[in-house]
Amino acid sequence: MRFLLVEDNRQLAKALCERFALDGHVVDRAHDLTSAQTSIRTVAYDLILLDIMLPDGDGRDFLKTHRNRQGKTPIIVLTARSEISDRISVLDLGADDYIIKPFDFAELEARCRAVLRRQGGSGNNEKKFADIIFDSNKGTLCFGEHVEDLRNRELRLLEVFFSSPNQIFAKTYLMDRLFSFAEDVSENAIEVYVGRVRKKLAGSGAKIETVRGIGYRMVQN
């Protein structure tokens, strides 16, 4: 999935980006509110991690504006303020959750998973299509007695296809889901990962179909 991290502390931002990258997530970092606004106009993010105290303003203003514009992207607020009134205020403004600094990375990751599950209307990480069970938390594909372990970007690619089976996804869209602004890659990289995923699906009841000149979709065999 693709996250936007709005955080001006370079050391913390670097650590968070590296941690989420290990889980296969694509993370774009904005160091202030102006950069964050530019980013959300360019990319549809799965989750926003938002600091409150930023060089050019208060993160709560960003949160309020985003919700007033009917922005549906889930937002977790990163705050050093532990007072109950502060926590209530960010939730009332539309935050999906908050975490108090300093925090444990494992707790933040768990909160991200919980928010994303709620956003998807599911209480677990499993999705089913044809005869396949895809578990994004375990990083596995299961069909029959066969189990395939997935690498990070294979997993993120399948998250897209399992979110909307039979829907066509353009290469440019898939690149947005798999790679950050900082990564210099071509559309050929998508072909490589689609090829890997096709091998993982071999023998199952589903396949990735090429729609010539448009992109790819997952369909039943």
Any overview of this molecule?
The chain has 221 residues and is of the alpha/beta class. The protein has 2 domains: 2-119, 3-Layer(aba) Sandwich (Rossmann fold), CATH 3.40.50; 126-220, Winged helix-like DNA-binding domain superfamily/Winged helix DNA-binding domain (Arc Repressor Mutant, subunit A, Orthogonal Bundle). The chain contains 8 helices and 14 strands. The strands form 4 sheets. Strands 2-1-3-6-7 form a 5-stranded parallel beta sheet, sandwiched between helices. It is elongated, with a radius of gyration of 18 Å. The mean pLDDT is 91.
Number of domains: 2
> Percent of residues in beta strands?
25-35%
Spatial separation of the terminal alpha carbons: 26 Å
Quaternary state, please? single chain
CATH architecture of the largest domain: 3-Layer(aba) Sandwich
